[in-house]
Amino acid sequence: MAARTQVRTLATFNVNGINARLPHLLEWLGEAQPDIVALQELKATDAAFPIAAIEDAGYGAIWHGQASWNGVALLARGATPIESRRELPGEPKDTQARYLEAAVHGVVVGALYLPNGNPQPGPKFDYKLRWMARLARHARSLVDLPHPVALIGDFNVIPDDIDVYDPKAWKRDALIQPEVRAAYADLLAQGWTDALRAVFEDEVIYTFWDYFRQHAERDRGLRIDHLLLNPVLAEGLVEVGVDRDVRLREKASDHAPTWARVRVPKTPSR
Questions:
Q1: 231 CB contacts (<8 Å, ≥6 apart)?
Q2: N or C: which end of the chain has fewer CB within 10 A?
Q3: In the prediction, which pLDDT does 4 show?
Q4: Which part of the chain is the Endonuclease/exonuclease/phosphatase domain (predicted)?
Q5: Whether residue 94 lies in the annotated active site
């Protein structure tokens, strides 16, 4: 008998400090009730992750923390993600907490926080390009799997000029450099679907607004939080969006939750 499907909501949210923004996160989880959530910039050690509050909200979680910087987590509504990997292969001495992979509600999810790369040129930009190369190699092993796979998170990549309010003002930034854009384009060329762009096509939509000059209120932002779906999952794409209102709340993160609703195949029944 053919496999049935169920609609799941996948989301990514750079919280810019899990404990500082915990009330915002819990409020949004209660409102949106996403099934799968990737968090970035925890800025907390493993021991400081607020697992009790997350569980009280109805979510299981796994996390990879780091003091003061970085840190990623995966949340699952009514379940606990089954971890398969917590770093990208290819650079054993890299200790930055930027990648976490697990099976969640029938989907293999790679949650990532790609390096910023500024200032460029320099060592931080070189690290960004190496990280993107490692991501591409690992992603190639995932994209053609026969089950749903998603790579979601803060990619720190502005793919095209339409994804930034003022391309000229950002022309020297690491997020917009030709090498970075080319690496992202090569990643998509493996067969990944950029969910937001697949639906919004040539419309302007942002996921990040810095704290300067009321950029959030004036909608002067960037699109740097991405949800990439392999062909199996992209086939079931239903809807995408950005919860910009979360960014406009008092003492908010500079990112907004970005999400996609997808049909995920259930286990075939007899």
A1: 143, 144, 191, 193
A2: C
A3: 86
A4: 11-255
A5: no
Report the number of distinct structural domains present in the chain: 1
Catalytic residue status for 184? no
For residue 199, give its domain range. Answer: 9-262
User: pTM of the predicted model, to two decimals?
Assistant: 0.96
Nearest 5°: phi and psi at 19? -80, -35
Sequence letter at residue 60: G
Whether residue 56 lies in the annotated active site: no
Residue segments in the chain with a per-residue pLDDT below the cut of 50: 1-2, 268-270
Determine if residue 235 is labeled as part of a ligand binding site.
Answer: no
Does the annotation flag 14 for ligand binding?
Answer: yes
**Domain of residue 130, CATH code:** 3.60.10.10
